[in-house]
Specification:
By secondary structure, the protein is mostly helical. The chain is 78% helix and 0% strand. The chain has a single domain, classed as MFS general substrate transporter like domains (Growth Hormone, Chain: A, Up-down Bundle). The two termini are 18 Å apart. Residues 1-10 have a biased composition (Basic residues). Keywords: Membrane, Transmembrane, Transmembrane helix, Transport.
Length: 464
């Protein structure tokens, strides 16, 4: 009888033989259902609201008399503010707590997105894009840092994969959604004006949900047993000790800014961001030129979704395989280098064979984007504690300089080489940058921890 009672009290740690479970799988499943959906929706809305300008450009450019370079500059100004405010934002999240800070981020960027509907000249366009970047700064690195306090490294690839799946999903549904909303003209508004209002206001509703239901720490989660919350805390602490040694628990936020490997990872992330935003901001225009202007705005939006459908499938598969094998570097480098080769093919065929180019564009997009979760499982291996908040934000900040460079550079390229020549050169430059990132990660991996800390494998739920 005593043994029966003991087994009932310890089902999380002592599952039946017919249905074996571990603390990792039980807790991971709870996090997947209780936390990840809110963060997924936040990332989805974030990516839609920062890239909807690419579809809006199809009509907004003529209304505001924007050149390709002016549009590229305005699209990229978002990232100047984003870079400037990401590290302060993550430090604030570390001090204030994720629940309040993520909700604050969502309220401000939702309002700014809706106010984009008031833009009526190029300088207002520049100013509102800057404000949007400042408002949204810190969301993605903040969530990555938040999840490092909840998910042991052995399971982090899959959880981050679920979170970052929001980016290809947002790209897949964002273009059709944005183009569809632009077909409405209520209250005498232009289609792009109505679209900004319709896509900005839902952020306020999700912010209220996050403010009510997102727990800051495992000990705050009512859906975790006390023993499960303690297991998470102990396991993360052991992993941080493996990274920081004697400095575990005593790291300063300035330590994350002085770490050479953080700077190297920033360069790798930069190499991913540049081609990602080539697609995010210019794919609708490229499709319009590839189809000879025979497809309308709504149709272009649906065609632009296709590469991201394949990317989402690949992202889930790569992140799960990386967790299963506990191998990170080749799961990043191989898809990245294949993607770079895909865009070389796209550059060579975009004017001569649209079907081949379309397949190659899909391969390149998978290589640039599907490896994001694998990359972000690597970054927390070099910093811990408060240094993780600043280090992760610095990687995202420097990497997202590519978000400014990309649209401005490709806008200049497309102004200098109109039509098919500009498309070919854009894909070739994107391929070169992406390939350099894959090779840099191979070199950098020799300096990074390659094994999962023993504590993640051996730690078990402690019971009275």
């Amino acid at each position: 009888m005593t043994m029966d009672n003991h087994r009932r009290r310890n089902t999380a740690a002592q599952p039946s033989d017919s249905e074996p479970q571990s603390p990792e799988s039980t807790i991971s499943r709870k996090i997947s259902f209780r936390i990840v959906p809110m963060l997924f929706l936040a990332a989805l809305l974030s990516y839609v609201d920062r890239t909807n300008i690419g579809v809006a450009k199809l009509e907004m450019q003529a209304d505001l008399a924007l050149s390709e370079a002016a549009f590229g500059l305005g699209a990229g100004i978002f990232f100047i503010a984003y870079v400037l405010f990401e590290v302060p934002s993550n430090i604030a999240l570390h001090r204030v707590g994720a629940r309040v800070w993520i909700a604050r981020i969502m309220v401000t960027w939702g309002l700014v997105t809706a106010l984009m509907s008031l833009v009526d000249n190029v300088w207002m366009f520049y100013g509102m894009r800057f404000l949007l970047g400042a408002a949204e700064a810190g969301l993605l690195p903040g969530v990555v840092y938040y999840l490092t306090r909840w998910v042991p490294s052995a399971n982090r690839g899959r959880i981050l994969g679920l979170f970052f799946l929001a980016i290809p999903v947002a790209s897949a549904i964002g273009a059709p959604l944005t183009s569809t909303l632009m077909s409405f003209h209520p209250w005498g508004l232009h289609g792009w004006q109505f679209m900004f209002i319709a896509e900005g206001l839902p952020c306020l509703l999700l912010a209220a949900v996050i403010l009510k239901f997102l727990p800051n720490e495992p000990s705050d989660a009512r859906w975790l047993d006390a023993s499960e919350a303690q297991w998470i805390t102990d396991t993360i602490h052991r992993e941080n000790s493996d990274i920081a040694g004697d400095k575990a628990g005593h790291s300063s936020w300035t330590d994350g800014l002085k770490n050479g490997r953080v700077l190297a990872l920033s360069a790798v992330y930069f190499s991913m961001v540049v081609p990602i935003y080539l697609m995010g901001f210019f794919l609708p225009s490229i499709i319009k030129e590839m189809t000879g202007g025979t497809v309308g705005t709504t149709g272009i939006g649906y065609i632009a979704a296709v590469p991201y459908i394949f990317t989402g499938i690949a992202m889930v598969a790569i992140s799960r395989s990386s967790d299963r094998t506990q191998e990170r570097m080749w799961h990043f480098a191989v898809p990245t280098l294949i993607g770079a080769c895909g865009w070389v093919v796209a550059a060579a065929t975009v004017s001569s064979s649209p079907f081949v180019a379309a397949v190659a564009i899909c391969i390149g997009t998978v290589g640039a984007m599907a490896t994001i979760p694998t990359f972000w499982t690597t970054a927390p291996k070099v910093v811990s504690g408060a240094a993780a908040a600043s280090g992760i934000a610095l990687i995202s900040s420097i990497g997202n300089i590519g978000g400014f460079v990309s649209p401005y550079m490709f806008g200049i390229i497309r102004d200098a080489f109109p039509g098919e020549a500009g498309n070919s050169l854009s894909f070739l430059v994107g391929a070169i940058v992406l390939g350099i990132g894959g090779l840099l990660m191979i070199a950098l991996s020799k300096t990074l921890p390659t094994t999962t800390p023993k504590s993640t494998k051996t730690a078990q739920l402690q019971h009275d």
